[in-house]
Amino acid sequence: MDRTPQDLAEALVASFGDAGYGRVEPPVLQPADVFLDLSGEDIRARMFVTMDAAGHEWALRPEYTIPVARAYLASPGAAEPAALSYGGPVFRLRAGESGEFWQAGIESYGRPDAEAADAEVLGIAVEAVSALGLRKPEIRLGDVGLFTALLDALALPPVRARQLRRAYAQGQLAAALTQDFSVASAVGGEHAGLLRAVQGQDPKAARAFVEDVLNIAGISTVGGRSAAEIAERFLARAEADADGGVSAEAIAVLKRFAAIAGDPDAASAQIRKLAGEAGLDIAPVLDSFDARTGFIAARGVDVGAVAFSAAFGRNLDYYTGVVFEIRDGSKADAKPIVGGGRYDRLLQTLGASHPIPAVGCSVWLDRLAGALA
């Protein structure tokens, strides 16, 4: 008999409980601004948002990571490490599909042994979906922290680095590296006059000017962003134009990096070689990468079968370290069934007094049900 997403949620939460992850149930209704500020553009554009009588915007939770983090920070045990699980509906606009679907997952907070925690979350996810009947789980791995370390070592202008990090998260790094990073290219020649008008102005006055232009044009929101947020991004692009470009040498290093793929051990060796030839010191991050690979292997995962790609990111703005997906390896072009990663800055952004290490993952239960049918 086919299992429903609800059935799978209960089975997974029970499995997570056996691994030491206690269940939490954050509210369905969440403050919308948290997701608008911290989630990726893909989620922001597909949220269900409403406004209360006081003018506050609320969203049906579009994912669980932020609500679970908020629940943890509001709990009496927020100063201590925690291992939490969840299962229930989330809500996003989806073309041709229901806007309500189910997820289950785990979040690990406060562990100082980051590499072991990463491996544990990945290992639990693989074990859980395999136990339910996914016969050929295919693991795809990336590392936001490794890419960030490379950008820092290259000492790129801050705005250029932000542009590349955004492209990386969207899976568009290779394409971005072939493009002109000038503002005219980024926003279109029709905006050149507006750019000239704001360049050199006081930032506050320039921001107000761009907001006025957007409001006169009748543009209030685009992709979930307010006119003020659009103005901020426009001014950032103007700043990028003044900052200067990325050198041909740096672009060449980034292109070589983006092309690296294979199992984690082979990829690490290639990245070390690239860093050595380019005179870049990213050894501490690579040492952490290798330690994590060892912990993954210790959990019984065949690391030789793990597909690492240096250009692989996930379209959520809060990731800071390892990112991963698990797919049904028996089907070509299968969508991710599990997605997760490390997000060490999110909890402080949400109000914690200091950075709290965090890593977790979510299972798309409608996709898992389809794979098991």
From TrEMBL:
Transmembrane annotation, as ranges: none
An MF annotation (GO) of this entry: histidine-tRNA ligase activity
Biological-process GO terms, alphabetical: histidyl-tRNA aminoacylation; L-histidine biosynthetic process
Q: Which domain of life is it from?
A: Bacteria
Boundaries of every Class II Histidinyl-tRNA synthetase (HisRS)-like catalytic core domain copy: 6-179, 239-368
Q: Does the keyword Glycosyltransferase apply?
A: yes
Gene3D superfamilies hit by this protein: Bira Bifunctional Protein, Domain 2
Task: List residues binding L-histidine.
Answer: E63, Y64, T65, R92, Q103, E107, R314, Y318, Y319
Identify the PANTHER family for this entry. HISTIDINE--TRNA LIGASE, MITOCHONDRIAL-RELATED (PTHR43707:SF1), HISTIDYL-TRNA SYNTHETASE (PTHR43707)
Q: What is this protein called?
A: ATP phosphoribosyltransferase regulatory subunit
Q: Organism, per UniProt?
A: Alsobacter soli
